Amino acid sequence: MKSHLAFSQLLLFAAAACLADSPKPNRDPQNAATDKGTSVAAYKDVANRIIDASLKKNDAWKKMEELCDGIGHRLSGSKSLDQAIAWALDTLKADGQENVRGEKVMIPRWVRGNESAKMIAPREFDLHMVGLGMSVGTPPEGITASVVCACDEEEFETHCKDATGKIVLFNNPMQVYDPAHGSGYGSAVRFRGKGPSMASSAGAVACLVRSVTAHSLRSPHTGATRYEEGVRPIPAAAISTEDADFIHRLLKKGEDVKVHLKMDARNEGLVESANVVAELVGREKPEEVLVIGGHIDSWDVGTGAHDDAGGCVIAMEAINVLRKLDLRPRRTIRVVLWTNEENGLAGGKKYAADHAAELKNHVGAIEADSGVFSPRGLGVDHKDDPTMKRASEQLRDILSLLKTLNATHVAEGWGGADIGPMKQSGVVLMGFEVEGSKYFNYHHSHADTLDKIDPRELSECVAAMAVVSYVIADMPGRLGE
User: Fold this and answer.
1) Would you say residue 430 lies in a domain?
2) Looking at 279, 317, 341, 342, which residue is catalytic?
3) Does residue 341 carry a catalytic annotation?
4) Which stretch of DSSP H or E encloses residue 156?
5) pLDDT tens, 374-415?
């Protein structure tokens, strides 16, 4: 395709930026102040400068407008993802970042096509649906079949063990957000992933899943599904929580609910894409690297504002703020915008493979992929428990610098999907944590648009990421040691 040929040329051009000389160490008084010792208190003044500068003025909202409103969705393998990657490369260069480049990744091109779902008995009723990513399509004429329903695995074994010729609906509600325990996403999402294979194994011709959200205005939420090896792939779609409950009520009354499902979804194989990389090169130990970033792809519903344009922009703007303040840490801060997180993780896997030899010099990796709300702190993970404990204690000290942002929380045991492949190489993984009560209202839905983001909260996230990144990259010792 012409778009991909042009894209390849773009990557070759971008890679040439790596040949530029690295900047000379910066020994101005701003940096010298951080050479006095290991105490986090030594960073209080510089942290306050970063926060004040970030909240006063930054380019994050402008970048969000350009990415979300100007380009739109960024589905894996799409022309718009190519455009977003080209935009990110150009923007990072314009900001003066160093070693800006695209690193080639082959990713799946899944095409949604036209799709619809309609109840035809006991009465006609248009269902609010969206196909699951990587689903196969229906025959051109669609599929019409009776529906059977299960809320969990036990009900599936009881009511759907023989679903031959039927459509299986998994109506598993997601728990309402609890400030103490977070969302119920981890439990509710399981049927989106494994439900179609379970249904197919029982003889079903298609699968519907209740959208993975606890709050809905008849808004369906997509997401990737997967087919077990050796199981016949069947069409799979999510329907709104209201429609799932409606069908379930009818079935409990003994009605024969019939649905007509039509999906043009198809997989067109692998195409070329790229992880976007840019750096603020370290002044003393440039070979040691702290990675920060998000994933630049999104689903094709909404514009991926929270998931994950915001994560990309937060990382891009964090090093932009540091550069404008002439703050260059001891180590290199490397921004990585991963491709294909949503339906394959190809970008995260390829980054870990391409950089395997230098992962021993990665002092940490921070992924922002939980939306753009008020920052709350960091998750931390490591393959070795004692190292994770040491890192979490250090992070508690570092995050004390963010008291004015109320971003001091540290949660052990989680990092991020794209940085996950680096775990076995001993990299300290960190997940950028934000207030999460509303995230899954918009997640993977048509509602994930720029108007759902508060500019002030976006700036707070930039400030938090910039402070944490600077301190981890600048402190004399390595995180976790």
Assistant:
1) yes
2) 341
3) yes
4) helix 153-159
5) 999 999 999 999 999 999 999 999 999 999 999 999 999 999
